[in-house]
Structures are given as C-alpha cells and as structure tokens.
C-alpha cells in the first residue's frame, strides 16, 4: 500500500524533539496563549520575512479573521478561484461578503490574472489568490492590480508554506497571508491550526484581539470576536517542524522531479506545469488526463492511493447557490473533470514513484 501522505515516517524522524516539546507543555500546564505561541509567531514572521504573524485555530479561521480584520462585509465582493478547498470561499461568506469566482489558468491551476482584472467592479474590495497545490500564484500581477484599483490582496497560503517568489515568501507579499497547519499541509501540526501574517502593527493587534473574544485585557471586550487560538501543544510541535520546513519542501520537489522523469513521455497525460512565477513546493502532485478513471482504477487495484482534488468546483457547489452569482468557468470545469492527485510527501521513495509510474503507463496503453 502506498498512501497519499505518510505522517508516521516524519514523526519517527523528529520523535525525540517533538516528544520533549510536548512533555514540556504538559509539565508547564500553560495551555492557551503561552510562551510557545509567542515564540512560534516570532519564528514564523522571521522565516517568512513578514512584519507580523498571528496564530489561530485553523486555516479556515485564518481566512475568516483576515477578512474580518480587513473590514470586509455585506455588499462587498471578493474575487477568488473556484478550484480550491471550500474554506477559501466559506470565509468570504462568513463575513457576509459575496465571493466572485473567476476562472483559472488551466496549466498552473491558479487564478487567471487577466480574467481577475476583468471581474473587478466598484463593489470589489479584495482579491484572494490561492497558491494552489503549492505553486505560487502570479503575485506580481495581482499586487500591481490591487495597487491600481485600491484593493486588498489576501493570500490563501494553506498549501504553500515555504514557497518563494524570488526572495519573497508567499504570505509576505499581499496585505495578509493565511496559512493552515492541518496535519497533511506542508507545515502541519497534530491537530488543527492556522496563522495570519500582517503588514502593519495595528492590523496584527486587531487579529490578536479578534481571535481572543475581541479582548486584549481579560474580561474587557472591544468587539464581538471569536475563540480561535492555536494551543501551546500545537505551537510547540510546529516550532520543531519549522526548523525542517526547507528540507521537507526539498523532499517534495525531489519527489516531483522523480515523477517528472518517470511520467514525462506518457501519452494522454499532463504532468504538473511549473509556470516559473515562483518555486512550486508540491503540496499535491496533480495530473490531468482525459482517461483519469482508467488511471484511478489501475492505481486502486495496485494498492496505490490517489485522490481527486477537487471534483466539484465551488461555483457548482450547492452551498454557494445562494451566495454567488451563477457563472460558467470552462477551464475550472475541464480541470475538475480530468485532475488526479498522486501520493506526495517528502519521504516518498523513488522506488514507489517508479512503481506508480509503471501502473499509470500500463493503464494508458
Ligand atoms: C486546507 C485549506 C484551507 C483550510 O485550512 P484548515 O486548516 O483545514 O481550516 C483553506 N484553503 C486551502 C486552499 C486549503 O487547502
């Protein structure tokens, strides 16, 4: 059996440090907003080159808190992709704003900048690109667009921790960057967790206030906020793993290189396209094929995991029928009908990749 992700191998390699950190928290008994959260926020801000970093309870909350802190609400439009996890657009709906779904570039799977610019209206307040599957979106274009139209730029970095565009890290380029520490993400904890980066101090202070019931001073509440804090155990685990994130991402890029070598000549198959805007960190390794179902059947028969991310784009989800205008997104729909993600994790062995490639090659013969 080859799984989609293997969290055990990574834990075994870091067990001593992680176990010690968790035991420290248990001995300390300061479980909420303690020293590990504070240290992690400083360490992540330094790693990303972001002025401020504020942790919270999940990636979904990171997006929600960012939109709340930006003052986005009813009557506002936020442009984003429909080819992403639902949380990206759920957060827009949480604050009462309208998600405006724009089509993707069918090669990178990321939001198309030209179509995005064409979708800007007087109601548009923000653009929210997703660095999908770990490939940076076209931030130079989106930054220029947001400057020209006076819009906020909020990055969904849930799949792109450690991905760079030149010297800049995703999450440090827009006004805010939203990260998820869900266990299977490139930097994952052992539960739920998230983080928002912010450019200015006032915005960071507002995020900290919002995540803690609208409160800076205990039992003094400035606004209606949330209970959305990262706990100390998760923060302690993440501090250990953060020291290895570049090695983890290098492992993913190595695996992607092995896949590329093994699959590049297979007919009826598109392997992931690196568009060169930034460095792809391969949260997922996602193929396109008109014969996806044949490939899936063969992989399943060979005990190799695979998954469709994402089978139903957000503009076609029942949940959004009342929230967004009906649209047709040809590239998004075509990609959703043909995409297939293969096992991907830093420690994925080269022999496993060779075996996966053999099964795919044979299935398409
Ligand atoms: C995982 C993910 C989220 C949500 O993160 P959670 O921590 O699961 O709440 C948001 N956007 C994208 C693109 C994701 O992949």
Automatic annotation (TrEMBL):
Entry keyword annotation includes Repeat: no
Active site: 185 (proton acceptor)
Key words of the record: Pyridoxal phosphate
MF GO annotations: pyridoxal phosphate binding; transaminase activity
Any Gene Ontology biological process: polysaccharide biosynthetic process
Modified residues (N6-(pyridoxal phosphate)lysine): 185
Highest taxon in the source lineage: Bacteria
Matches recorded under Pfam families: DegT_DnrJ_EryC1
Gene3D superfamilies from the UniProt entry: Aspartate Aminotransferase, domain 1 (3.90.1150.10), Type I PLP-dependent aspartate aminotransferase-like (Major domain) (3.40.640.10)
Keyword set includes Ribonucleoprotein: no
InterPro entries documented for this protein: DegT/StrS_aminotransferase (IPR000653), PyrdxlP-dep_Trfase (IPR015424), PyrdxlP-dep_Trfase_major (IPR015421), PyrdxlP-dep_Trfase_small (IPR015422)
PANTHER family cross-referenced by the UniProt entry: TRANSAMINASE, UDP-2-ACETAMIDO-2-DEOXY-3-OXO-D-GLUCURONATE AMINOTRANSFERASE
Family affiliation: Belongs to the DegT/DnrJ/EryC1 family.
Record-given protein name: dTDP-4-amino-4,6-dideoxygalactose transaminase
Provenance organism: Ectothiorhodosinus mongolicus
């Amino acid at each position: 059996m080859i799984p989609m992700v293997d969290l055990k191998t990574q834990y075994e390699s870091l067990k001593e440090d992680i176990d010690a950190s968790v035991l420290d928290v248990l001995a300390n008994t300061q479980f909420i907003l303690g020293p590990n959260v504070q240290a992690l926020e400083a360490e992540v801000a330094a790693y990303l080159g972001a002025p401020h970093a504020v942790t919270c309870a999940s990636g979904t909350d990171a997006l929600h808190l960012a939109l709340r802190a930006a003052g986005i609400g009813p009557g506002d439009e936020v442009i984003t992709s429909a080819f992403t996890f639902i949380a990206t657009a759920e957060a827009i709906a949480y604050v009462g704003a309208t998600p405006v779904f724009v089509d993707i570039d069918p090669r990178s799977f990321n939001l198309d900048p030209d179509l995005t610019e064409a979708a800007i209206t007087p109601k548009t307040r923000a653009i929210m690109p997703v660095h999908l599957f770990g490939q940076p979106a076209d931030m130079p274009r989106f930054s220029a667009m947001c400057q020209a139209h006076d819009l906020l730029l909020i990055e969904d970095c849930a799949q792109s921790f450690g991905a760079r565009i030149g010297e800049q890290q995703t999450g440090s380029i827009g006004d805010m960057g939203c990260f998820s520490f869900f266990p299977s993400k490139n930097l994952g904890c052992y539960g739920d967790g998230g983080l928002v980066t912010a450019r200015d101090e006032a915005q960071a202070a507002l995020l900290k206030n919002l995540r803690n019931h609208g409160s800076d001073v205990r039992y003094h509440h400035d606004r209606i906020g949330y209970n959305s804090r990262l706990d100390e155990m998760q923060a302690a685990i993440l501090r250990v793993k953060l020291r290895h994130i570049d090695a983890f991402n290098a492992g993913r890029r190595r695996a992607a290189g092995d896949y590329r070598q093994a699959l590049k000549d297979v007919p009826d198959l598109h392997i992931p396209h690196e568009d060169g805007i930034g460095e792809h960190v391969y949260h997922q390794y996602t193929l396109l094929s008109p014969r996806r179902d044949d490939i899936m059947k063969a992989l399943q028969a060979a005990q190799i995991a695979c998954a469709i991310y994402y089978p139903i784009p957000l503009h076609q989800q029942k949940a959004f029928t009342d929230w967004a205008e009906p649209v047709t997104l040809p590239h998004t729909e075509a990609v959703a009908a043909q995409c297939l993600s293969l096992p991907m994790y830093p420690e994925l062995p080269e022999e496993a990749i060779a075996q996966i490639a053999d099964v795919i090659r044979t299935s398409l013969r």
